[in-house]
Design brief:
The chain is of the alpha/beta class. The chain is built from 16 helices and 23 strands. The longest helix has 21 residues. The structure holds nicotinamide-adenine-dinucleotide. The site of nicotinamide-adenine-dinucleotide (NAD) has 28 residues, from α8 and α9.
Amino acid sequence: MSKNEIKAMVKEISPLFIDGVWRQGSEQEVSEDLNPLTDEVYAFVSQASAKDVDDAIAAAHRARVAWANMVASQREAILIRAADIIAARTDELRDVIIEESGSVFGKAMFEISYCIDLLRVAAGLVRQVTGDTLPMTEPGQLGMSIRRPLGVIAGIAPFNAPFLLAMKKVAFALAAGNTFVLKPSEYTSVIGLKIASIFEEAGLPAGVLNVIPGPSQMVGEILMNDPRVKMVTFTGSTRVGRLLAEQAGKSLKRLTLEMGGKNPFIVLNDADVDYAVDAAAFGIYFHQGQVCMASSRIIVEAGLFDSFCQKFAAKAKSLKVGDPHDPATIIGPLIRRSQCAVINTHVEDAVAKGAKLLCGGKHDDSLYQATVLAGVTSDMKVYAEESFGPITSVIKAADSEEALRIANDTSYGLSSAVMTNDLQKAMDIALRLEAGMVHINNCTVADEPHVPFGGVKNSGFGREGGRASMDEMTELKWITTQLGKRKFPF
Ligand code: NAD
């Protein structure tokens, strides 16, 4: 698009939010943001230049002392007002989430209700930034640890739960007394900018939150290298997380990484097979499988394998695929049509190496059918790689020990589940699963604002949610007070 064309349509371009002001990027770069269902332009979004990123960091840096020192009741009030504003703007936000990210109706509503709860949880933690009193060796010496805000935190967010995951970073950072620079996904910039408009309406002081869609590599490099940014919190793919970790190694930036998964869902012989089928279906097909916690490897003990496969494929075939606005739709569009090619590759590779396609394997533009592969083995791409679509593998295990071995046979370690009525066995497996999260008799997809969410291995490090976020986003300081005079050695 030429600069003149951009000038002519500037009113339609979603601006950046820097230092409390909505403004166009200083280099007048604009990107097209597509509707995943129609592939038509949903929005034109202004792109931050290097100068704009610097301005956003500078604004957050200027605002940090006043925000950290603002009385708790005022910070709480802003977070609670933001929750109320989301509730009042539900229809508007729901439509943006559906149209910009392809979320089905129910998933969009889930993100909204989650964010309302999240902001209330974060408001409740403003006065819970506590430390310890510490016994000291020296007579008359009192010790304490206190938690202080870090200052400026930057967040880089993914497309798949764009409102929830970006808000999680922002809400806890602000609650802990930090200021923030948010770079939303290029696929969901408008949703990211809505977060700015919610806080603007809630009365957040200028500079405390800045939202800057822009070229990801350039923005990321500046955020990772600017010494005024004290921490970067990233949610996204392991590929990008690894790049950021390399940069953090040079700049020594505090970093949390919430990355991909290949999450095992184990079904043991004594499980209720119908219940297991329902849990597995929700675990893989929620948001068309574009979930880091998706149940993308279903491992079934031999005794239940055949009946599970038959019932699960029947359930998958019954799921309505189509327009995400329709509340009856379960499977909406993938974020981009190109993602269908990745899933096709996984299907073709698996079938060529001997897997059986029980259903699906086809798509209509960005609408990919619920897909089930059986007989998947470790030499197949779909066994190891994140597909990020409505496709899962059902793998047979001779017994519970083999199920556990297969479950841990992955470079990832985010979520996991085990279905059994034997709680003793379930706990034993839960303790030995190499995953940050384990759900017994539940599906792998679960999140609440106050739980320590996160993974191990290539799924990342650091935890998000409630107290865990408050700990990650504050610095411990040790303070001592000497009552009377201590004796020094010389
Ligand atoms: P992505 O890694 O492609 O992008 C994530 C963010 O990083 C986006 O904002 C993107 O613009 C930015 N980015 C891309 N290249 C960058 C670079 N070189 N430097 C800095 N930033 C860069 O991920 P995605 O496709 O948006 O999301 C899907 C991935 O996210 C999946 O792997 C999924 O498992 C993962 N995810 C993880 C969690 C979790 O909590 N563990 C949650 C949701 C999604």
